[in-house]
Amino acid sequence: MIRVDAIWLALGASDLRAGMDSLLARVVQQIEGGARIHCAYVFANRGATRLKVLVYDGAGLWLCTRRLQSGRFIWPLQAAHAQSIAITQAQWEWLVAGAPWQHLEARKNITAV
């Protein structure tokens, strides 16, 4: 239903009481080029028990939430040099399931035996 070509995680904790406009302001401040069409921007609360996802579809904004019934999301800490990171669709699927998505990498060619 909602086309998403790229997924960005806002590193560190976010105040999820914030609405669409506050989250959009954070995207504009932290992502070079601002909010892009068909991109999802994901925010987590301090305990990584809830997520908010902001998606710009070119006509307007979508705001979605996700909460696990138990456990926490595996959420990256904020790095000194970066405030956001891009993840793949496969990493996203593992992240929203609460699985350790950081271990998924792009498949590489075998170059030595």
Protein architecture, described:
It is a single chain. The protein is 18% helix and 26% strand. It is of the alpha+beta class and 113 residues long. The chain has one domain (6-103). The chain has a five-stranded mixed sheet with strand order 4-3-2-1-5. Strand 1, helix 1 and strand 2 (39-44) form a beta-alpha-beta unit. The radius of gyration is 15 Å and the shape is globular.
- Put simply, the count of helices is 2
Q: How many separate structural domains?
A: 1
Q: Pairing-aware structural class of the strands and helices? A: alpha+beta
Please report the total strand number as a whole number.
5
Low-confidence stretches: none
If strands are numbered along the chain, what order do they take across the biggest sheet? Answer: 4-3-2-1-5
**Shape verdict:** globular
- The topology string of helices and strands comes to EHEEEEH
Q: What's the story with the biggest beta sheet?
A: 5 strands, mixed
What number is the mean pLDDT? Answer: 88
CA-to-CA gap between the ends?
A: 44 Å
What share of residues are in beta strands? 25-35%
Helix content: 10-25%
Whole-angstrom Rg: 15 Å
